[in-house]
């Protein structure tokens, strides 16, 4: 079987979380069909990407050291198809791309394919701002949009956004050494279509058609509405100085954003301001023309990158309706109270178990047999010979004892 590597490098907010969740949970089934998804934990490819690009990420960069080389070694040792997937890989530099591609091919016969999933800018821009907010950002939507439109693109926000979203540039960096037929663009369908179309496109390009896979998502990256995102930004302003990243992720991003606020689906949705629609539409059209000119394999339809009309009633997340924000805040407080009650109950259970263990230990100390053993041991340890014999006993006991 010839070696084949399918390298999915983004872009963010194109169904990547669902794809990676399915691949991770089905990795044993995939391997039985000759497909390797090399991951010992669900975020293994994220850590490998951090390592490849030496990105600082809330302290996780130390944990990521050596992860890319370990992943690449697994791929080189596999004779069939290997899949790597993470959206932050889209921003890799040319030198990092070169290192990645050379590390994955164990010989000249390895066939490397690039997969890039894409969505229209009118949906991507507000989604990317929201993702920033879910990662502690306090930047307003107005400032975010201003930085994106700055021709210099010199700020952190603009450089990151265009690094992971500008389709021709990503393809220049990742696909310049690959034949066009080995570069695959998976387009995200327009809103309102059947929910499984995107998975069918992913399944086609990754060669998963016909495999019996569990497609139920356990992890997702759901979207928030306007008041919910506004509330989260205000929370960031209040807690960033006092809440460390390891605590922010489970409490704010997971508990509040993903598990609580995302369930409020009747509030206004985030959207691009109507006056920016034409700018985003023109840019997307130029990108589609460039993709068509280069002759890449399009899985889906480039027409999917043509955005829909502007919303009739646009809601500004920098000036939301305060009654809606208050409703979201009540839901957030409720979730935190329930979580606090659960944590207190767990603490009480553990405290009770610790108390019981201490009481049992105290009872053991009071037994006559224990006091006799202690007295004998003190007697033995009074001499050098006795201390030596005790050390020998402890070593022998350590070697022969079975773990509890």
What's this, in brief?
With 404 residues, this protein is α/β, with parallel strands linked by helices. The protein has 17 helices and six strands.
* Spatial separation of the terminal alpha carbons: 45 Å
> Radius of gyration, rounded?
28 Å
Order of helices and strands: EHHEHHHEHEHHHHEHHHHEHHH
Structural class: alpha/beta
Largest sheet: 6 strands, parallel
- Total DSSP E strands: 6
Q: What is the strand content?
A: 5-15%
Task: Please give a structural write-up.
By secondary structure, this protein is of the alpha/beta class. The longest helix is centred in the C-terminal third of the chain and has 45 residues, at 322-366. The mean pLDDT is 91. 33% of the residues are buried. It has helices spanning 16-25, 27-32, 44-53, 60-64, 67-76, 94-104, 121-133, 141-149, 156-165, 167-175, 197-205, 226-239, 245-258, 277-294, 322-366, 368-380, 384-400; strands spanning 4-8, 35-36, 81-85, 111-118, 183-187, 297-299. Helices cover 55% and strands 7% of the residues. It is globular, with a radius of gyration of 28 Å. A six-stranded parallel sheet has the order 2-3-1-4-5-6, sandwiched between helices.
């Amino acid at each position: 079987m010839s070696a084949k590597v399918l390298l999915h490098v983004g872009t963010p907010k194109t169904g990547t979380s669902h794809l990676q969740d399915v691949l991770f949970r089905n990795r044993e089934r995939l391997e039985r069909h000759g497909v390797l998804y090399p991951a010992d934990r669900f975020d293994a490819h994220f850590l490998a990407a951090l390592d490849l690009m030496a990105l600082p990420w809330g302290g996780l960069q130390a944990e990521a050291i050596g992860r890319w080389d370990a992943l690449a070694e697994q791929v080189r040792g596999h004779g069939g198809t290997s899949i790597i997937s993470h959206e932050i890989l889209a921003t890799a530099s040319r030198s990092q791309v070169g290192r990645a591609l050379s590390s994955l091919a164990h010989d000249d016969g390895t066939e490397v394919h690039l997969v890039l999933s894409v969505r229209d800018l009118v949906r991507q821009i507000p989604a990317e701002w929201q993702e920033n907010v879910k990662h502690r950002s306090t930047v307003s939507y107005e400032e975010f949009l201003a930085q994106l439109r700055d021709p210099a693109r010199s700020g952190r926000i603009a450089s990151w956004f265009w690094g992971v979203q500008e389709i021709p540039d990503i393809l220049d960096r990742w696909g310049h050494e690959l034949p066009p037929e080995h570069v695959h663009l998976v387009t995200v369908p327009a809103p309102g279509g059947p929910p499984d179309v995107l998975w069918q496109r992913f399944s086609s390009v990754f060669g998963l058609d016909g495999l019996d896979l569990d497609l139920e998502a356990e992890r997702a990256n759901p979207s928030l509405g306007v008041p919910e995102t506004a509330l989260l930004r205000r929370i960031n302003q209040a807690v960033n100085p006092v809440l460390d990243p390891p605590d922010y992720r489970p409490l704010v991003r997971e508990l509040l954003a993903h598990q609580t606020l995302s369930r409020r689906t009747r509030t206004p949705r985030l959207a691009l301001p109507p006056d920016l629609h034409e700018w985003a539409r023109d840019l997307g059209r130029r990108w589609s023309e460039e993709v068509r000119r280069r002759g890449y394999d399009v899985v889906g339809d480039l027409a999917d990158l043509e955005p829909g009309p502007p919303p009739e009633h646009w809601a500004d997340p920098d000036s939301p309706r305060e009654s809606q924000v208050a409703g979201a805040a009540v839901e957030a407080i409720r979730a935190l109270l329930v979580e606090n009650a659960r944590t207190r109950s767990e603490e009480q259970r553990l405290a009770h178990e610790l108390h019981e263990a201490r009481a049992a230990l105290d009872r053991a100390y009071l037994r006559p047999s224990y006091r006799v053993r202690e007295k004998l041991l003190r007697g033995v340890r009074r001499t050098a010979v006795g201390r030596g014999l005790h050390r020998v006993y402890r070593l022998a006991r350590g070697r022969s004892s079975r773990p509890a």
